[in-house]
Amino acid sequence: MADTTVKLSEVEHVKDASNYLRGTLAESIVTPLTGALNPDDTHLIKFHGSYQQTDRDLDSERKRQKLEPLYSLMIRVRLPGGVASSAQWERMDALADEYGNGTLKLTTRQAFQLHGVLKRNLKKTIQGFNDVLLDSIAGCGDVNRNVMFNPNPHQSQVHAEVYEISKAISAHLTPRTSAYWELWLNGESKHNSLLSAGGDDEPIYGKTYLPRKFKIALAVPPHNDTDIFANDLGLIAIEEKGKLLGFNVTVGGGMGMTFGMLDTYPRLGDIIGYVPADKVVDVCEKVVTIQRDWGNRENRKFSRLKYTLDRVGLEVFKQELNQRLGFELEPARAYEFKSSGDAFGWTTGPDGAQHLTLFVEGGRVADRPGQQLKTALREIARFHTGDFRLTGNQNLILANVAPEHRILVEATLAQHGIQVAATQYSGLRRGALACVALNTCSLAFAEAERYIPQLVDRLDGVLAELGLLQDDILIRMTGCPNGCARPYLGEIGLVGRAVGRYNLYLGAGFNGERMNKLYKEMLDEDGIVEALTPLLQDYAQKRQPQERFGDFVIRQGYVQPTTHGLNFHA
Ligand code: SRM
Ligand code: SF4
Q1: pLDDT recorded at residue 4
Q2: pLDDT tens digits for range 263-280
Q3: Given phi > 0 = left and psi -120 to 50 = alpha, else beta, which region is 511?
Q4: Are the C-beta atoms of residues 236 and 166 closer than 8 Å to each other?
Q5: Which residue's alpha carbon is at the smallest distance from atom 12 of ligand 1?
Q6: pTM higher than the cut 0.85
Q7: Disulfide: which of 40, 180, 306, 392 matches 252 by Cβ 3.0-4.6 Å?
Q8: Beta-bridge partner residues of 492
Q9: CB burial of residue 301 (10 Å; 0-12, 13-18, 19+)
Q10: What family does the Swiss-Prot or TrEMBL record give for this protein (predicted)?
Q11: Could you tell me which residues are annotated as the binding site for siroheme?
Q12: Which has the closest alpha carbon to 557: 511, 517, 503?
């Protein structure tokens, strides 16, 4: 099935020649003449969890002054299931201040990001992670990324079991190269399970790794809070009487596309069958190896599993998977998803443990006038005996709060201007997702995280007049079509086209099972508000009981439903 006549992309050659992801990183990182890395190393550093970036707010001024751009590194810490201890939180908080830009970003895949790390500080930053058993290997790059799962295993016994499986999948698919600990940790890792193997053999990936990034998410119905259909591989837990049986398997999800290239498209995963729980890690490995062997290594725009699948056909893919597994997937089992968002405020688990889900706007943990979230969480980390759980919706759960700490948690938050209940925010704001975009993302055409609060302020005005302020409506914004905030799963999706201009997409399902459709192009803020106001008015008047906004705009004929990635542009 692999085509040996293809002209490999440049990145394939870089990986091939890199000696298992080393390249010339050791030299690049210490060269004092520039803040940048050697060009080939900019590809390799991703596998170590980092991206070279510039401060785009300063690019033109620095160019005018004939200075090189202000290079720095973004670094992403993988956390399977988004779980961090208090000690790990405190460390990330401190590293953000010491080497980063003083903020922590909670990503849409339940990871931490630091921005603005100068290359001379990268090693010290990674060593800081290692001290508290965190790492950034495979945070980015052509490998399996952070494995997503509902961040609260204490919700039920099934959640606890699925969390363990998500960690097992993550560990199984972590690259084995010793380059990471050799380059950053002087050959010594505190992370026994992960990096002590020390060999360069990559039994799953091989020396050129995957053709492109690969993403896995797990979910326990009825909550699709990891948007599993947006992943290359999704696993839907099937339980019976509170016991985990196995998983329905989805393949071929992905959000990215390129404007003007209709043969690129976001796509939701297809359900291909059911697998018992004890065989699920093997299924993940075999799907990864098929993509390793069959994925497009010529043109990175078509390298994701979704394009492999649409090229070879789902049936051929399933046959190959069954053959590599040595057994057949069973028919998929019944399940139902009802939502893809987070439930805010205090909850009590079946074991009586207390958990607090906090709204974190844009996933940015920062101190702002009147709201010192970063300080509040640091103070909480000093006494909190439970842990911190990052959600796939860029929010945060303080999990397992000791009963005697509940009042102290609330008081600490209140003292720093953070309210526990999220009802002071509109339903639109609570469910909003926005990618980083400017000023650090090199691919952004427009603002997202920095701008969405202002847009929601205006839309909240419209919603308030219509009595819809507390209705949950999913809005998602990105600065480009790559889809980092999964905008095509927003009931309202806004995708940056140019500075201050967005394409407006409508009609996604509230439960993450249907993508939206282009409604209007190149809108500025007034255009967005003008386009949405009559629809929201109509919704307030004519919606049926419990009808979601995404379903309503389809029933009213504003947009056609998207039934498959292949008709997303239709
Ligand atoms: Fe993403 C590239 C940020 C989740 C699809 N993404 C980037 C880069 C690294 C830009 C770059 O290549 O230079 C962004 C760094 C910005 C910055 O300054 O930090 C970036 N992506 C993010 C994060 C931080 C957004 C956020 O605000 O939370 C998310 C980090 C997740 C993590 O912890 O691993 C993030 N990115 C996603 C998701 C959502 C998801 O995975 O559920 C997607 C859509 C799903 C998918 O992969 O299809 C996503 N990011 C992309 C793509 C398009 C990939 C494609 O094959 O279509 C790119 C561009 C690329 O890879 O060439 C990209
Ligand atoms: Fe950057 Fe585009 Fe991803 Fe936003 S969606 S972080 S602008 S790559």
Answers
A1: 57
A2: 999 999 999 999 999 999
A3: alpha
A4: no
A5: 443
A6: yes
A7: 306
A8: 475, 506
A9: middle
A10: Belongs to the nitrite and sulfite reductase 4Fe-4S domain family.
A11: 484
A12: 517
Does 135 share its domain with 259?
no
d(CA 359, CA 393): 9
**Catalytic member of 46, 267, 286, 484:** 484
Q: How far is Cα 339 from Cα 430, in angstroms, rounded to an integer?
A: 14
Find out whether the beta carbon of 230 lies less than 6 Å from any atom of ligand 1.
yes
Q: What is the pLDDT at residue 3?
A: 54
Query: Which of 484, 488, 489, 515 has most ligand 1 atoms within 8 Å of CB, for mutation?
Result: 484
Residue with tokens 């069954």: 322
CA distance 365 to 378: 10
User: Which domain covers residue 315, as residue numbers?
Assistant: 144-174+210-341
Measured distance CA(186)–CA(189) in Å, rounded: 8
**Shared domain check, 441 and 397:** no
Q: Is 30 exposed, middle or buried (0-12, 13-18, 19+ CB in 10 A)?
A: exposed
Question: What DSSP assignment string belongs to 458-479?
Answer: HHHHHHHHTT-TTS---EEEES
Q: Find the angle CA(521)-CA(496)-CA(226) to the nearest 5 degrees.
A: 110
Among residues 424, 440, 475, which one ends one of the domains?
A: 424
pLDDT at 28: 95
197-246 pLDDT, tens per residue?
A: 556 789 999 999 999 999 999 999 999 999 999 999 999 999 999 999 99
Structure tokens at 71: 């290079």
Tens digits of residue pLDDT in 53-106: 988 888 888 888 998 899 999 999 999 889 999 999 999 999 999 999 999 999
What are the distances in angstroms from CA 303 to CA 229, 232, 299, 372?
Answer: 18, 11, 7, 42
In contact, 286 and 307? CB cutoff 8 Å: no
Q: Could you tell me if 131 and 150 lie in one domain?
A: no
Q: Which of 286, 306, 429, 480 is catalytic?
A: 480
Domain count, the chain: 4
Note whether 268 and 222 are same-domain residues.
yes
Do 114 and 75 form a contact (C-beta atoms < 8 A)?
yes
The pair of structure tokens assigned to 476 is 């998602």
Residues 6 or more apart from 333 whose CB is under 8 A from it?
Answer: 238, 245, 246, 248, 274
